[in-house]
Amino acid sequence: MGHSLLFDNLIKPHLHNQDPFLIYKDGSLLSYQDFFSLSKKVSQFLLSQGVAKGDRVLFQLEKSVYGLAVYAACIMTGAIYVPINDQYTLEETKYFISDSRPKIVLCSANRKSEIDHLNIINPSGVIEIDPIKGLMQFQLQEYNEIEQIQRVNDDEIIAFLYTSGTTGKSKAVALSQNNLFSNASVLKDFWQITKQDRLIHMLPIFHTHGLFVAMNITFLSGLAVYFYEKFSLSDLEKIIPNATLLMGVPTYYKRMNESPLINKELTRNMRLFISGSAPLSSVDHQEFFAKTGHTILERYGMTETNMNTSNPYEGKRKPGSVGLPLPNIQIRITGHDTKIPLPPKQTGMIEIKGPNVFHSYWNNDQANQESFTDDGFFITGDLGYLDEEGYVHIAGREKDLIISGGFNIYPKEIEDILNGHEAIVESAVIAKENKDLGEVPIAVIVTKNKNKDQLIEDLSQLLSQNLAKYKIPKEITFLDELPRNAMGKIQKSEIKDLLSY
Ligand code: MCA
Ligand code: AMP
After folding, report:
1. Is the CB of residue 496 less than 8 Å from the CB of residue 430?
2. Does the Cβ of 397 fall within 6 Å of ligand 2?
3. Disulfide check for 146: which of 43, 45, 99, 141 has CB 3.0–4.6 Å away?
4. Residue 449 pLDDT
5. Residue 460 domain boundaries
6. Domain end (from 133, 152, 171)
7. Domains held by the chain: number
């Protein structure tokens, strides 16, 4: 009997593997063996802090090897990994701590002192970690490597990733060992990933895309990763001749299309360009092909499901389509009123069933009930249709969501903050098209306050105290009133028409 699906398949094969795992910007390398030796010490450290199977380990730090080592350590100890965006404000972070109730929080020194002042978790459970020096005050080198790997069943939870909903408050998506393993295996085969690949990794590692899609496939195949802190076109241009694989959001491809250096010659060794997390326009898809001779492979996923569909590796990759359902994953489109499956070319709700679909929302029975049909399909909130060849096309979203550069922004969360200000009568946050990021949030407000410049200043301050920067509306616009339908519901599409967005 093994230890756990993820340990046995992602970690165990590499414990003595001296091949390169991470290649850093300065050219230095970290081997698989050295990475897992570090992770085993981090595991022993977690145990020394009293972390046991099922305990949450909340991790908030800029991108570094430690985000991966703590993830691996959670797999080894049976703890639940809870990575959150390091850009979140203290106010946002407070919510994630209160909701997930972690045994320990690993974060920067600054964040630790801020959290300590909140009195929501015992300061001894808030542990300073540095992206370069790691767990410095704990002398990690003196820790032994963990010997007793925790046994964990396939349906037990390994991670919580937070995603928002219509309520405006984030929900923890509880993902099981099998959710992650089944999807990584399918994707590895579907995209023909091998240990010969060299992956360019510039994504954050607190979301499904950069953490599970990119890294679980890496562990499964043993490939080498160009592990860079963030997206940079000039860094990409330097490493692309030596790489074979890129996983990115559409903004990456928009920026590459603008670059005079990206061409067929520079990308000649690349095997596969993958795009996801937000819609890739047919124009960007075709422009990239004309420039490089590569056909981008677009796929579709969610935090709750990992990846659901993908254009084929061999076969037609259709611009504007997110491809075919992945093996063992059922997708159907159902009518808004009838709730019964629709024939091809008719738009309805995308529903999904398969081993990839998450275990449950943590501590949220209502959301769990509302998100599934009686026959067990997950209701995605995305609208789409199937074409005559079975390819899925996303036609829009029923959920009120803005996707900006691949980051999801929930208008309700911003509206709640705006509406809390005494001068605001009502507000709506809507998406405005943006050439680089796809769409960005704009706040539209109704106020009786005459001094609009002062109000904008006050609101900007209020928003930055409460929200990570990427969520802050890029503009604040005023209207005398917001259009509503007969039921009194604000009509965002009419606001867009009024403002010509
Ligand atoms: C940065 N800024 C943004 C965004 N990113 N504003 C709106 N939307 C954004 N996405 C702001 C910063 O706060 C900053 O503001 C200014 O822009 C410059 O910041 P910088 O970090 O230099 O920006 P950048 O390097 O140009 O970043 C753009 C980016 C990045 C590369 C597109 O946002 C990114 O890596 N996005 C990927 C997100 C991702 O991994 N999504 C996957 C999750 P100021 O100037 O005021 O300081 S979705 C997922 O996992 C699902 C399941 C799936 O299907 O994959
Ligand atoms: P997340 O909150 O990160 O789980 O975001 C998942 C959402 O991103 C999905 O429900 C879709 O709305 C969107 N999404 C992901 N991939 C694509 C894609 N290729 N095209 C369009 N939308 C996408």
Report:
1. yes
2. yes
3. 43
4. 83
5. 401-499
6. 152
7. 2
